[in-house]
Prior knowledge:
Number of strands: 10
Helix content: 25-40%
Structural class: alpha/beta
Order of helices and strands: HEEEEHEEHEHEHHEHEHH
Number of helices: 9
Number of domains: 1
CATH topology: Rossmann fold
Distance between the termini: 60 Å
Mean pLDDT: 93
CATH superfamily: Alpha/Beta hydrolase fold, catalytic domain
Low-confidence stretches: none
Oligomer: single chain
Radius of gyration: 18 Å
Strand content: 15-25%
CATH architecture: 3-Layer(aba) Sandwich
Amino acid sequence: xxxxxxxxxxxxxxxxxxxAATATEVLRTDLPVQSVRIPAADGTLVHGWLSHGEDGNGxxxxxxxxxxxxxxMLSRAxxxxxxxYHTLLIDxxxxxxxxxxxxxxxxxxxxxxxxxxxxLRRTFPHERIGAIGVSLGAAxxxxxxxxxxxxxxxxxxxxxxxEEAVENRLKLFLGEPGTLLLPLLLFQISFFTGVPVxxxxxVAHISNLxxxxxIISGTNDHHTTVPExxxxxxxxREPKELWIVPGAGHFNMHDYAGRTYEREVSEFxxxxxxxxx
Length: 277
């Protein structure tokens, strides 16, 4: 039984950190986009789509969730571009078309965010820059090593610690007994990624963000609970806003909340990206 448990846990670590590569470049979209490849500090190219709005309205970086890709953020890009924002959708490393062997829960993905922000600053030198990150995408923004200097940030469905993220998922899939596997799975994550798990906790870094922040989560999110989200909010710097969406779970907030989501996001970005802050 011990050997079987160890084997299952090893396999789980392999699956959790394994690459989620997909050929997003070949997909067609009704949103006019320009394919871009952005050099990152590690020498890889971050693949993405750039969509042009109108100068003077600001630009928004859109960063997807775990085991997804830039296509997840297309609906947000559509309504933001319609409002005049330039938008950049990227594939994080080991996702979509951006190279990478392992998902690292924000450690290496944060370098992709840094490269994307540098690209936007060069491409739109006179525009204010905002960002929306979902789950892993949100963690990648918060865990960035350099000061991103963003003018507005929206963080959706983001866990405070990797330990809580893993524990909550073990409970969901295996029930309370599943938490017995937590130490083994955390060890596997560190082993496969080469990153200490205690460096992957957004709650310990969110105060370094130094940007106006809107934190969004759902009342029915069992992957990241409301009390966990409230801890993140408490740790963030002012100015900050919190929106707990009634009935929402750990899934696409734009799909769930629709026009209400668009209104909340639009008001936040209009205030901070269009010169009225």
